[in-house]
Amino acid sequence: MLVRADDLDPLAALRVLGATDRLDRGDGPLPAGERERLLERVRVFERAARQRVADLRTQLARAEEFAAALADRLGGATAGQGRDAPPEAPAPTPPA
Asked: What is the mean pLDDT of residues 44-70?
């Protein structure tokens, strides 16, 4: 089954909680096919959650790299005004 971004929407979360509650209830066997349907609902949500975690880890790694690059650039700019600093403007000459 395909995992979609909307598999993690709030309504899907409520449905998966309902499915886990139903699976955990100890009030006898589930009707034919219902157990597998509920398990599949939980599986889809679990795959979507794992994919979202992987996507967030990638996004975090990129953000950390960007922040480090900015920090390096700032460090170079403040240590002797770095090579990318604009040249100092000449002092204005007083009118004659």
From this structure: 96
Polymer length of the chain: 96
Provide the greatest CA pair distance for the chain: 102
Distance CA 48, CA 54 (A): 10
CA-closest candidate to residue 51, choices 94, 8, 88:
8
Q: Which residue, 50, 20, 25, is CA-closest to 38? A: 20
Alpha carbon distance 92, 77 (integer Å)? 25
What tens digit of pLDDT does each residue of 35-53 get?
A: 999 999 999 999 999 999 9
> Tens digits of per-residue pLDDT, 18-29?
999 999 987 888
| Token reading at 70 | 């900015």
What sign does the CA torsion over 52, 54, 58, 63 have? Answer: positive
Return the residue matching tokens 């880890």.
57
